[in-house]
Amino acid sequence: MSSNEMNGTVFAPDNDLSENAYVSSFEQYEELYQKSIESPQTFWGEIAKQFHWETEANPKDFFSYNFDTQKGPIFTKWMTGASTNLSFNLLDRNVKNGLADQVAYYWEGNHPDDYSRITYKKLLQEVCRFANVLKSHGVQRGDTVSIYMPMVLELPIAMLACARIGAIHSIVFAGFSSDSLADRIDDCKAKVLITCDGAWRGEKPLEIKAICDEAMEKAAKLGHQVSKCIVVAHLNRVTPGCVKAAETIKSTPWNDDRDVWWNDEMEEAEAACYPEWMAAEDPLFMLYTSGSTGKPKGVLHTTAGYLLYASTTFKNVFDYKPGDIYWCTADIGWITGHTYVVYGPLANGASSVMFEGTPFFPDNDRYWQVVDKYKVNQLYTAPTAIRALMKFGDEPVLRHNLTSLRILGSVGEPINPEAWLWYYRKIGKGKCSIVDTFWQTETGGHVITPLPGATKMKPGSATFPFFGVKPSLLDENGVEVVGEGEGYLVFSQPWPGIMRTIYNNHPRYEETYFSKFPGYYCTGDGARRDADGYLWITGRIDDKLNVSGHLMSTAEIEAVLTEHKKVSESAVVSRPHPIKGECLYCFITPNQNEVFDKTLVNELKKLVRERIGPFAQPDVIQHAPGLPKTRSGKIMRRILRKIAINDRNVGDTSTLADESIVDQLFANRPE
Ligand code: WTA
């Protein structure tokens, strides 16, 4: 054990790291935290000073909210009266402050021989040009724009171009199926879709435009037609090692009335565009997250509060200093990419690596090769990636020099202590702080997280709240758990980055997050507080599950499975998985006279891929002649979870309508 490891479970930050950090002791953290809770206006008002405000906030109305449905509609407002523009703060302001020639992104493609970079000045010009392109196609302030793209530089350009003209971007992760994309285009009534011809993932070609064409057709059938589709030519990049894959990609499908090439449009566009000044609470973007009732929820974030929160969490949690090279491996299609690949880093004038590839191509050392190549100081990735890479042992790690690393981040799901320790010892060499950041699409930024120079770490604990965040643990009756204990993780007051509503559905927002415990925002996660006050996230306590950091709801998957004409009933539970964290285990009751066979299993897997996306494919689909139900017809998922892990210790089954079904289900396990 290194000298930093104290009593086996607590790890103190490295001394040098602490001394030089923005927040360099736990006492300092506590002081700042108290201030953020007691005087939010002073605390965030001070932070706001570094940004440009076209009009200032009204000091008498800086912060107001209601979290209690019994007192009226739920709302959160920060900086009423202020107006600003995100792209102006992220680009023009930094260029004016001397960062024109600083690299904003080192772009690293799918193949190591394919890379480029873009400076702040160039990024500003490209954003302005694309903003003018959007305008030329009739996109105006308040319109929505859907984006379905791989990790190419045109993606942040497109986002910030939307922000520049006050259009709301709705990015759909490019792993979603055409059905999912169609639903999302239709729900937000996107005027324009921005995409790309295709991309490679390792050696696998992805026909992205073809998926978009299907989605646009399906959206039209749902009643909404996009007026333009702007397409980036990405496949014409010569990607070495992917020649074979290139041959297999068909020529890009095209509709002359609707589709235009990005490059053709950009040629004529002017490289200057006056920003649209947006009110503090005007929408900035929406991002869909899975909902319990099938229909995805368009989580809406607004302007001023999101800027303050994304920039402040980025700066303090990653302790980003000028000159550092930061790398977040998340896809921009998820919230982690929005806040910590784009808005947070650029608001701080940071230099980031943006990565299109996978950890496994061309070899399993790709992450470590990229860290070494760019001398990355902060690496932010997911437990699922860490667990997958651990499998290959230390050799791929030892091929590279990782001494530039100072801070290691984890996000998306609880990190198991074994993975935490491997990350700490093998990647961080016992010198880096690990920030296990707990947050959600809805929270906009980190809400429970260590600060790297201040917080002593415990492997698997997200530790303490960030500035402005007031967590509580509640029991089933809404009574607060004080001291050591476990309960529902809730927040009793808003921080600047919290979501403001569900797009076009405020009642659903109030119902989903505020109805269970009046006065609190309910995360849907459980947490435990230990004797030292550390918070440990125990996982979802609603019907959601987390597969490789992708959140989905069991109800959503069940709805897809029962669409199949041979299926009478289905129940989906989560089962622990060594790499993915959790995986889907599905029980299927076929209709009378239908057989349950391999063909049906394959058809069901295909259906889930088509309706949701490849990442949602179930690991196990088993035959269930019946489901364990109570006499009132409620499926006892607790028992199904035991069957999924082959644990005979199912507990009390006396409330079941038919107890014999349990034995049948054990006998039917496919493995
Ligand atoms: C889970 C991702 C434990 C949690 C940023 C949450 C975590 C859901 C952590 C949100 C963590 C995220 N420890 N669990 N450090 N980070 N989660 O909206 O269940 O894709 O509610 O946002 O991921 O997933 P989402």
Break the fold down into its secondary structure elements and pairings.
Layout: E1 5-6, E2 10-11, H1 15-20, H2 26-38, H3 40-48, E3 63-66, E4 75-78, E5 83-84, H4 86-99, E6 103-108, E7 115-119, H5 120-136, E8 144-147, H6 154-165, E9 168-171, H7 178-188, E10 192-196, E11 199-201, E12 204-206, H8 208-222, E13 228-232, H9 243-248, E14 259-261, H10 262-268, E15 278-279, E16 283-289, E17 297-302, H11 304-317, E18 325-328, H12 335-347, E19 351-355, H13 366-374, E20 378-381, H14 383-390, H15 395-398, E21 407-411, H16 417-427, E22 433-437, E23 471-474, E24 485-491, E25 501-502, H17 506-514, E26 521-529, E27 535-540, E28 544-547, E29 550-553, H18 554-561, E30 567-577, E31 581-590, H19 598-611, E32 620-623, H20 637-644, H21 660-667
Helix pairs in contact: 2-3, 4-5, 5-6, 7-8, 11-12, 14-16
The chain binds 5'-O-[(S)-ethoxy(hydroxy)phosphoryl]adenosine.
Describe, in plain words, how this protein is organized in 3D:
Among the domains are: 85-358, ANL, N-terminal domain (Rossmann fold, 3-Layer(aba) Sandwich); 544-667, ANL, C-terminal domain (GMP Synthetase, Chain A, domain 3), CATH 3.30.300. It is built from 21 helices and 32 strands. The strands form nine sheets. It has an eight-stranded mixed β-sheet, with helices on both faces. It has a seven-stranded mixed β-sheet with strand order 7-6-19-18-20-21-22, with helices on both faces. Strand 6 (103-108) and strand 7 form a beta hairpin. The chain is globular, with a radius of gyration of 25 Å. 5'-O-[(S)-ethoxy(hydroxy)phosphoryl]adenosine (WTA) binds at residues 289, 334-336, 410-414, 436-441, 462, 523-525, 537, 540, 546, 551.
